[in-house]
Each structure stands twice: as structure tokens, then as C-alpha cells.
Amino acid sequence: MQPAAQQRDDLFRLLVTSVRDYAIFLLDPTGHIMSWNEGAQRIKGYTATEIVGKHFSIFYPPREIRQGKPEYELRVATDAGCYEEKGWRLRKDGSRFWANVVITALRDAAGQLVGFAKVTRDLTERKQAEEERGRLLALEREARSAAESTLDQLRAIQSVTEVALTHLSLDDLLQGLLDRISEALAVDTVAVLLFADDQRSLIPRAAKGIEEEVQQGVRIPIGRGFAGRIAAERRAVVLEDVQHGDVLNPVLIEKRIRSLLGVPLLVEGRLIGVLHVGTLYPRHFSETDVSFLEVVADRVAIAIDHARLYDAARVARRAAEQADEAVRLRDEFVSVAAHELKTPVTSLRGFAELLLRFSERGEQLNPERYRRILQAIQRESERLSRLITQLLDTTRLDAGRLVLDRHVEDLTPLLGGIVEQARAQSDQHELVFTAPPALLASVDALRLEQVLQNLLDNAIKYSPNGGSIDIDLAQLSPGLVQLTVRDRGIGVPPDEQARIFERFHQAHAASHRSGLGLGLYVSRQIVEAHDGQLRFEAPEDGGSRFVVELPTGAGVEAAR
Amino acid sequence: MTETRRVLVVDDDDSIREMIELALRSEGYEVVTAPDGAAALALLPRMHPQLVLLDMKMPLMDGWEFARRYRQLPDPKPPIVVLTAAQDAARRASEVGATAYLAKPFAIDQLLDLVQRYGSGA
User: Fold this and answer.
1) How far does the CA of residue B26 sit from the closest CA of chain A (Å)?
2) Cα separation of A368 and A413, whole Å?
3) Cis peptide before B76, with omega less than 30 degrees from 0?
4) What phi and psi, each to the nearest 5 degrees, are found at residue A103?
């Protein structure tokens, strides 16, 4: 060997022997170790003197030796020129390391196998890093999925809370909550049962999937059945396989509910009811399901409590509004009544003072003038007295103290007299009275007169352009009498027709026609006290028709 | 007194119209009456009253509507005295721009005083 080549070989040998990161060594064709280097000693733990001459299978785990793995590797290397793998190898101290192994077949110029070069790298650290990374990745995935499921739960709770916070009526609120809960837990039934007024039983207040139980008004005693048990124990109860006897509620039994989960509804420790969910198939309710329902139950309970207060407040507010309206109506009535009373008093006072003046001055009034004044005084006194009667009647009617003094009367002359009086009131109107020669009925004569008087007053008042007013009295059927008053006046607008019989109501208030707004109210009360009916009809050709139907009443046959 | 003083009485109540008319005539006034605002407006141009006694609550045309249209008439116009049975007579009077008001029921003396004060100077 030439000196330069010798030197190069020496350098090369030095390189191989001193490489520390790779175990590089030679095997003879049968696999015995022929050389060793620094890296081999570092990775495998053997010194050159210990290992040279040994078979390389010493580096393999026993199981692989039994499987003939070392020989197999040499065979592959021999045939293919090279064998490469990653696998576990043993160190001298028996510990395992993850190795990258390359075995290369060495042949001489004639192609004869002279041995193998084996290069091994210790990848344990990399392997560990990879494993660590994998583990971290798995952990991260797990954490993410946990976070996502928590987020889902939070969303579900939030969606329940959203409904719980809206200011709905209790019914709307419960329906909304049940929808959200059944969706979030994927259950077939949801029910809210609340304490009955007796505080000893639960009544289904809202349900989804088992709506019948609300309609049927099932009552569950505390301590019995599924809901009763939750109420008694004041804690969550799970029935994963509902057995006969576990539940009392016939609807749950009928529907063959297989699994149930229920929690108490508590507001600041006070039990207000029970919330339960159920499935038609056997279901395992997880810890998460239970705690979810408990969290939801807290919100549901508070929401129900709020909604109840809200409903109560609304009822109170409505009552207050009605009271205000009643007071307003009464004030308005008092002011209308005062106005109505002052009008005849103005005439009375004026005429009285005038008469006094004339008499003091010794003035002689012409007899016709004098008579007219006295007639006016009489007319206005009667008007005043009628108004006062009406006022007293309303208070009497309000107190339910209208007492009838019924006698068998002949209605024809009785009502005919009233028509006669009304004729004197107006010369613009033609009053036509049609009646049988006699018609007996048991009535309070004064009250019935009052009814016709009111109807005629209205007919005249609301026919400003005059016209005929028909008053018809007839025996409608045996035992039933009908009286109708029909005018050709301004009628009643359709939107007012329902209200004209209300107290203080004046259909034409804006037109300042006089009156207390009591006539029709009082009249209807009187007619109804006679077990009769008073109604309004709108004739097609305008004007108004009021119809009174009265039973002739007991004693009429005897009187005949 | 050089001319007969004439008063227009607008009230829907027959008795009150008659009573006021009697009271004023016995004191020498000439009296024209109308049962509502529309009738009163129709009378104004022919009758030239020196004073209008106006009720507020009347059918067909009430005191407010009458006063609104009255203000649109050319001057000179006779003053208005409101006669009302409502509690707030003063407010009603100012609402329609009346010169004075008299709450019903009133004394004949009060009526005559007012008519004399506002009905003679026009």
C-alpha cells in the first residue's frame, strides 16, 4: 500500500472508530461482530474487547431471536444488498432503545460476500418526543372535546336561561323552557309539576310529550310516585329502568316511559315543584345529565317564581286599572248627574224668583202667562224628581236591593197612560199606541211605567227631527207579553250597540243630549227582575227598536 | 235709553229659555232665542243683538263650535256671557273667549246685573 493511500485508510478508520452518534461495526458473513467503534460502545454499552467475536443477535430481544429475526435481516441484506428497519434493541444493561438499523452486505471484487456493515442510530429520544407529542395531541384533542361539550352544555343552559329571563306569562315561559330542555337532553318527555294550593300534592303545570297529564289534572301526593318521591327527598332521582310501582302517574304508565330523571325545583331552599324528563327507551343518565338538569332546574324555579310574581303584579295592575276606571266613570257620572240636576233647578229657581218679584212689585201677570209659569214649575219638579228616582234606583240596583211589588195588572191602560203623558212632552212626534183591549200580567206597575217612560224619553230625545214612534203591546204567546218601542231617529251606531245597556253609558255623549246615561241600564235591570228581557234591534230602515219580553207571571190565570 | 237693547239667548232647555226670556222682557229687553248654536248663528246677522247668553252643552252645535264660528264673524261683535251648569264655568268661559260667565242655577238678580253691565255698553 502506498504511503498516501495508507494514510487515507488510517484516517478513514479513525473516522469510523471515533464517530459517536452512530454505532458502526462489521459483521462476518455469519453475523459475528468483527469491529466496534465509539458510537457502538456509547449506544450499546459494550467495549470492543467484550463484544468482538460475539454474534450480533445479542442486541435483539429474546422473542425476536426466537422468531429468527437476526438471520432474516442478514438474508434480506444478502439478497437485496441492504436491510433497514426501526425497532427495539437491547443494551448491555438489558434496557431497550429504539433503533434505526441499516445492514449493508459487503462483497469483494469477485462478488463474494465478505461480511456486513451495520450502522445503528439511537432514536429513543426522538421516539419519546414523538410519543410525547402524540400524547400531548391526544390530550389536547380530549381537552378540546371536553371544552366543546362543556360549551354545548353552557349553550343549553344559556338557552334555558334566555327563556327563563324573558318576561312571558307563566304558560308561555314553561312551554319555552320545556322545548329547550327536551332538545338539550334529547329526551321524549319533560314535565313541570308545581305544588298544589294545599301544599300536600303536586299538579302537572306544563308537559311536553305527556301533555295529557296536564289536561287530566293528575294529582301526585308528596312522597308517592316518582315526582312525589323527588319532592319528599328534595334531591335528584334517576330511574333507569322504570318498574311497575315506581310511578303513580297514569300518563307515564300508559306511555310506557322507560327511564326517568327528575330534580326538585327550589327557590332559595323553598320547594316549589318538580321537573322531570323521561325516555321511551332505556337510557343511562350520566352525571353530566343530572348536573345539567339541576342547573337548569335552578333557573326554571326562579323563572317560575318570577313569572308568578309577574302574573300577580299584572292581575293587581289590571284590578287597579279597573278600579281607576270605575272611579273615573263614577266621577264623570257625578259631574253629568250634577249638570242634569242643575238644569231643572235653574228653571225652578228662576221662575220662583220671577213670581216673587212680580208679587213684590204688585205687577199683575196675564193669566195665560201665569199658568205657563206654573206648568213649567210643575214639569221641572217632575223632571227633577224623576232624575232623583233614577239616581236612587242605580244605587239600589248596585246593592241588589231592587224589590218588586208585583200585582196582576191590565197593561193596556197602564202603559197607555204613560204614552198619553209622553205625547204632552213633544208636539213634533206622533206616538202611536197599539194594544189589545186588555192584557193581564203580574208586574210592579210603577217600575214597568218607568221602563216605558225611559224608552219613550229616549225615542223622543234621539229623534230630533220628529216622526212617528210606534208603541206595540201584544200577547206573544201564552204566558209571554211583548212591548216594542220603535222610533225613526238617529239610531245606535253598531259599535255602541253592545254597550248601551251599561251603567252611565251614553251612546251619543259627544252630542250633549241631556240624560244621566242610566235609563236603559235601569230599565234592563227592572225587566230582568221580572224574569223578562230587554233588547235593542236595529231596524233596516234606520231608527231604533227596543223590545221588552215579559212573562205574564203567576196569578194571572187565577185573576182571569 | 235711545234704542231697545236686544239679547240673544242660546240654550237647548225649553224651560230655561222661557224663564230667561220672561226675566229679561220684564226689564224691558228685547229677547231672541235659539235652541242650539246653528240656529243662533243664523239669527245673528238679522237680529243684531247687543249681548249673547250662551249655554255650552247643546245638541247639533254646542257652545264651543258656536264660539269658534262666532270669532270668525266681522267686528264689531256683541260680547258673550256663558251660562253653564258645569262645575268649571270659569274655564269654559275662557275656552270660548267669553266676557263673563254665570253658573247655573243662578239668581235672577245676578242675571239682570250681568246683562245690564255687558248688554248696554255695546
Assistant:
1) 9
2) 32
3) yes
4) -110, 125
* A365 contacts A358 by C-beta, under 8 angstroms: yes
Describe the strand order of the beta sheet including A544-551 as a list of residue ranges.
A429-434, A467-477, A480-487, A544-551, A533-537
Banded model confidence at residue A1, pLDDT cuts 50, 70, 90: low
Interatomic CA distance for residues A110 and A213, integer angstroms: 98
Q: Please state the rounded mean pLDDT for residues A194-220.
A: 84
Residue of chain B whose alpha carbon sits nearest to that of A510: B59
Q: Rounded to 5, what percent of chain A is helix, strand, coil? A: 50, 20, 25
| ipTM of the complex, rounded to two decimals | 0.91
Residues in chain A: 560
Which residue matches cell numbers 429520544?
A: A125
Residue B115 near chain A (CB below 8 Å): no
Please indicate if any CB of chain B lies within 8 Å of the CB of A82.
Answer: no
Q: DSSP secondary structure string, A266-285?
A: EETTEEEEEEEEEESS--PP
Q: Is the dihedral of CA A50, A52, A57, A60 positive or negative?
A: positive
Quick one: how far is CA A90 from the chain centroid?
A: 72
Q: List phi, psi (to 5°) of A317.
A: -65, -40
Task: Tell me the angle at which helices B14-25 and A287-361 cross, rounded to the nearest 10 degrees.
Answer: 30
Q: A116: which 3 cell numbers?
A: 456486513
Please return the burial class of B17, using the count of CB atoms within 10 Å of its CB with bins 0-12, 13-18 and 19+: buried
For residue A507, what pLDDT is reported?
57
